[in-house]
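Hello forum,

I keep getting stuck at the same step: I have a sequence, I want structure tokens, and every attempt I make locally crashes halfway through. Rather than fight my setup again tonight, could one of you with a working pipeline run this one for me? It's a single chain of 210 residues.
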Amino acid sequence: MKERIIQTQACVDEGAAWLAQNCHRFDHVMAATGQLPLRRRTDGFAQLLSAIVSQQLSVASAASIWKRVQDADMDKPANIAAASDEDLRACGLSRQKIRYVRALVDADIDYVALRDLPSSEVIKTLTTVSGIGVWTAEIYAMFSLGRADVFAPGDLALQEAARLLFDLPTRPTEKELRQMAQAWTPWRAVAARALWAYYKVAKEREGIAQ
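Reply #2:
Ran it on my machine without issues. Output:
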């Protein structure tokens, strides 16, 4: 069966309604967060390159370096292949990031073909590239390809949101959260949006409380 693709806000709203109906805790989430965001992105090389560039950096630092990469026209495979390591370092990339960026270029992924692959194959294909882990591949499948039933249980914010929402004594592990998320099929990507939104609301409330 072909996987459901989230293309419009109506798709997210449909998934949110299903979750609220089938899990009363998500009904609570929707009441706290309001309408969940679409969060669709374009797909292709630049999206994965941006993800690699942003790894282990603050939002501000990642945005600054990504702008330097774009300004230098280093967000295209051919330009990176022709560039020296010094050129890439001038954009703010570390030695390790340069290695990862070159690995992405060398992988020569068929991004159009990914659109028609099952999510499991998308993730398998992407994680063969040095510097792309399961989390990055899952995020790409969720937001660049719009897969409705992909989740990212390794995400710390999702783990913490699940702990808060389900009153768990400790933050669930990646394995535990992946198992929990089975109950949210076929809308696990909408459940992720809900948990991220809930996490943001909970942290804002903590800030007010302090």
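The mean pLDDT is 95. If your local run keeps crashing, start a new thread with the error log.
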